[in-house]
Amino acid sequence: MTCAIRPSPPLSKPKGNSEEQCPLSTMDAGLVNHGRDPYRFSRVMCLERFIIPHINISSMSEKKTEPEVDHLEALEKKPNASSDDVHVETTRLTGAAALTVRQSIYPITLVTILFFLWGFAYGLLDVLNAKFQTALNITAAKAGGLQGAYFGAYFVGPLTYSGWIVRRFGYRWTFIVGLCIYGVGALMFWPSAVYRSFAGFCGSLFIVGSGLSTLETSANPFIATCGPPRLSEFRLELSQAFQAVGSVAAPLLASRVFFKEGDGEDLSKVQWTYLGIACFVFFLAVVFFFSKLPEVTDADMEQQAETSAGLTGYEDKPIYKQYKLVFGVAAQFCYVGAQVGVAANFIKYAEESAKLSQAAATDRFALAQGLFAIGRFAAAGMMMVVKPRFVLLLFMTAIMIFISIAIGVKGEAGVAMLSLVLFFESCIFPTIFTLAIRGLGRHTKRGASWVVAAVSGGALFPSMTGLLADQEGYHISMCVPLIGFTVAFAFPIYLNLFCAKELDGHRETKIGYEGADLSAERKHQDVTWEEKGATGSAAKHLEMDASSE
Questions:
Q1: What count of Cα atoms within 13 Å lies in the side-chain half-sphere of residue 191?
Q2: What pLDDT was estimated at residue 512?
Q3: What is the protein's membrane topology class (predicted)?
């Protein structure tokens, strides 16, 4: 169904108050300036985007541009259609943010496969890096520098080039660029291995981190926004669960297939493995180049936020006044730093606490990583029936309890407590991410870049933990992650005290559900339209469309 506005030519600005005499002729000047047909729009475009009061009607062009009209008609027939244009017009409505569960299955599945595959490739990095450290006799202090190089890329990328790419060119091209950067970084390990260069190794890790940070800048918000809003946390939790499976499977496969005991300082297998990773991620880039993914624009997110405003109380505010986002970035920074601090020192903790051999401690760490993957599946299932803010509070409370016990006890009990910390860490990152970007509207992509940049906390906490471990032992060193978890723990408390109504409104919205009654959610939007001049004949169109739903 389309809404056709056809005044008698020539088109001229009516005299008097244009808001009263011609309410339906108020349209987005940006759309007109792009040369699109001012008379033919989809019903959603007419009623929810372009009924705004202040516009110079005389600036409209009566001439139609044939290819652009065809593109609009295609979007009207397929609300979830994606654009093949390299540059994404952020003010264009594509309808991708209102996909139903059925419509979102294909794009979500494709990106989830990407999550698993890059989780697998990331899992290989730990094994390969260990081989490099053994061959080059890298000290513990230098090993901290390697983590700094990798996680430091997360601070640079999302706040500069990757954040800009996703806003200007969209998610699909950001996937492609991120995979290509990752592939280049993997290729650089070959000359680093040939020359046995520590500086080259750090540079390679920085480029790999840049590629993965670019992927996260696009993949996480894409999963969170592509489909019914009430399932955002479930979708991202489930997708990242498959990433965790890949991260657990890769080291086990590498230790039993790629590498054997006694390889010593031979780096030839490391070189070939990195070359295989590079070829694989370049292949993924080609797959995404030919894939049709729906593009979620800033206009789509703004429309989604405004449509559900009756439930959430959404207000379009500048991004620096989005206090939930700012708190979420701080919580994510401290949480990721604490998580990496625990993981980086888990094996040494087990050796010191339970007097285990390195091989036995490594097996315990593999078991803990398995619990981490299981925890993500468990959290995803819980979020189908429990509000995500409650799940986040529950898991963070458990982390605080078990990390405190792990500091105070020794032996097998301490190792078991630290393993449970990894289990409850499982849902924290994706849940903080989705709750922090909830209700940002047109600021969603920029806000997501900020939250991904907070992963750079992993560059700070491990070295601090290691420094304290050298002085006081690995038990006491867990006080550093405890501090990070404490800051992150304040975030779910804040959400439950001050943001409950907003978050529950997003949880209750029926956007993206076939045949859903959105009248309650549109109530606030109807009032907004009337305040903007959508009266008279415009109100009749609104009433007719609401009843037709």
A1: 9
A2: 62
A3: Multi-pass membrane protein
Place of tokens 């723990």: 489
What's the predicted TM-score (pTM) here?
A: 0.74
Q: Identify which has the larger pLDDT, 509 or 228.
A: 228
Angle between helix 388-408 and 500-508 (nearest 10): 120
Radius of gyration, CA atoms only, the chain: 26
Distance of CA 494 to the CA centre of its chain: 21
**Better pLDDT: 3 or 499:** 499
CA distances from 294 to 98, 106, 395 (A): 11, 10, 33
Task: Show Cβ contacts of residue 199 under 8 Å, excluding neighbours closer than 6 positions.
Answer: none
Domain count, the chain: 2
- State in Å, rounded, how far the first CA of the chain is from the last one: 12
Q: Provide the total of helices (H) and of strands (E) in the chain, helices listed first.
A: 26, 2
Return the structure tokens found at 95: 């309808």
Closest C-alpha to 188, from 278, 282, 283: 278
Rounded Cα distance between 350 and 362, Å, is 9
Q: Does residue 102 share a domain with residue 43? A: no
Please name which of 535, 20, 83, 52 lies closest in space to residue 306, comparing C-alpha atoms.
52
Nearest to residue 152, comparing CAs of 230, 209, 212, 87? 209
Tell me the three state secondary structure of residue 13: coil
- Strands 2-4 and 40-42, sheet pairing: antiparallel
Domain coverage including residue 329: 97-300+317-507
The answer to whether residues 524 and 548 touch, using CB atoms and an 8 Å cutoff, is no
Res. 318 pLDDT band, cuts 50 70 90: confident
Tell me how long the chain is: 549
442 shares a domain with 545: no
Question: What average pLDDT does this structure show over 423-436?
Answer: 94
Judgement on whether residues 449 and 521 belong to the same structural domain of the protein: no
Asked if the structure places residue 306 within a domain, the reply is: no
DSSP per position, 39-57: SEEEHHHHHHTS--S---G
- Mean pLDDT of the 278-307 span: 82
Nearest to 473 by CA among 416, 417, 425, 414: 414
Residues 116 and 69 in one domain: no
Among the ranges 71-80, 152-161, 271-280, 314-323, which has the highest mean pLDDT value?
Answer: 152-161
Do residue 546 and residue 501 come from a single domain? no
> How far apart are the C-alpha atoms of 406 and 19, rounded to whole Å?
67
Alpha helices (runs of H) in 290-357, residue ranges in sequence order: 298-307, 309-312, 323-354
> Would you state the pLDDT for residue 493?
96
Cα–Cα dist 296/300, whole Å? 6
In angstroms, the CA 302 to CA 447 distance is 13
Picking from 29-33, 135-139, 226-230, 423-427, which range would have the lowest pLDDT averaged per residue? 29-33
Q: Are 226 and 308 in contact (CB under 8 A)?
A: no
In the structure encoding, which two tokens stand for residue 303, read together? 């429309």
- Is the residue at 184 inside a domain? yes
Q: What is d(CA 182, CA 279) in angstroms, rounded to the nearest whole number?
A: 10
Same domain? 64 vs 110? no
